[in-house]
């Protein structure tokens, strides 16, 4: 069972994860995170010395979540075709959040990619996870250009996320995801 | 001929435009803009009272640039098919900047879309311009679903911009733009 210190740490990471997504990393202050986690500023420094440290923990947390999700899909779904469809379904199920705040991993990478290269290198690992998992499925289906197909699918999903956020409209998202499923049908 | 005040104002907008693109809006301070434009802080307030005012001027400036570019394409290129190809060529020509800083209008919208709705509503107008111009071309080609096709093309381009920035790689961009040209060929 995690001790109190570990529980506090988890509470901070969960609060920061939400704020970084909903406001952006640079728009979230150290104090915002401490307030949202309801940890006094004095105690807070025991867990994290800088906002960059919090970001590293948030990215680790998201990577754990993505890894666990993909492992679950692997365990529950035998056919690579259905696994790829599951990925598209995930995007569809996120419509409301995409329309409001954009893609958590896309928006974080775009934000940090401009002028914070060390932080962006961390955030990119989320993309690597999806890219490699998608490529593994296309490879199982016998496609030598599995990595290109994976990036194509990831890029299409990112583009949909941008337009969905810009126009705060999930109608476009759903029509486009139907088309993306039709694209996928050609490869499975 | 513009007077000195107007020239100073233009210098501020040009400096801010570059900083907002290369660092992000929220990562750029009032002082950063004043320093980059080499305008003393005291004089600066004569031109702009708040950073939000600068953003409004930057968006107006970008909208003018985009409008002028699209008008030039309309004047120089008669065939809607070739105009649409010109749009794709523009994305291709921006590869280096996309890999380094992402798409200027996409990244600004994503950043402001999270928690600054009034500023985002301004920034969205850049998307409207491209969407309407692309839709006009598809309409000239006789497609009743011209608006959907325009958003599809815009979304594909945005997705490419995200992946190109995430992996700082223009190789993927060029391969995907070839595919996007092939997609376009089906509609022209």
What's a concise summary of this model?
The structure is a homodimer of 188-residue chains. Helices cover 83% and strands 0% of the residues of chain A. Chain A has helices at 4-23, 30-37, 41-47, 51-76, 80-93, 95-101, 104-115, 117-140, 146-167, 170-185.
User: How far apart lie the N and C ends of chain A?
Assistant: 44 Å
Most extensive interface, chain pair and sizes: A-B, 36 and 36 residues
Question: What is the H-and-E element order of chain A?
Answer: HHHHHHHHHH
> What is the mean predicted local confidence, pLDDT of chain A?
96
Number of helices of chain A: 10
CA-atom Rg of chain A in angstroms: 18 Å
What structural class should be given to the helix and strand makeup of chain A? mainly alpha
**Which parts of chain A are unreliable, with pLDDT below 50 for 5 consecutive residues or more?**
none
| Morphology of chain A | globular
- Give the number of DSSP strands of chain A: 0
Residue share in β-strands of chain A: under 5%
Proportion of residues in helical segments of chain A? over 70%
Description of the structure:
The structure is a homodimer of 188-residue chains. Chain A is an all-alpha fold. Helices cover 83% and strands 0% of the residues of chain A. Chain A is built from ten helices and no strands. In chain A, helix 1 crosses helix 2 and helix 4 runs parallel beside helix 8 (117-140). The mean pLDDT of chain A is 96. The A-B interface holds A 22-24, 26-27, 101-102, 106-107, 109-111, 113-115, 124, 127, 148, 151-152, 154-160, 162-163, 165-167, 172, 175-176, 179 and B 22-24, 26-27, 101-102, 106-107, 109-111, 113-115, 124, 127, 148, 151-152, 154-160, 162-163, 165-167, 172, 175-176, 179.
């Amino acid at each position: 069972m995690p001790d109190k210190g570990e529980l506090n740490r988890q509470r901070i990471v969960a609060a920061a994860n939400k704020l970084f997504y909903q406001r952006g990393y640079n728009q979230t202050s150290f104090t915002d995170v401490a307030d949202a986690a309801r940890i006094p500023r004095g105690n807070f420094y025991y867990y994290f010395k800088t906002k960059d440290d919090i970001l590293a923990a948030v990215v680790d947390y998201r990577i754990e979540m993505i890894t666990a999700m993909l492992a679950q899909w692997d365990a529950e779904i035998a056919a690579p075709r259905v696994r790829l469809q599951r990925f598209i379904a995930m995007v569809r199920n996120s419509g409301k959040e995409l329309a409001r705040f954009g893609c958590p991993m896309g928006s974080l990478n775009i934000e940090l990619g401009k002028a914070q290269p060390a932080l962006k290198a961390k955030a990119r690992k989320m993309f690597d996870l999806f890219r490699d998992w998608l490529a593994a499925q296309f490879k199982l289906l016998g496609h030598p250009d599995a990595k290109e197909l994976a990036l194509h699918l990831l890029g299409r999903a990112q583009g949909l996320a941008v337009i969905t956020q810009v126009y705060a409209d999930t109608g476009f998202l759903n029509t486009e995801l139907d088309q993306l499923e039709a694209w996928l049908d050609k490869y499975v």
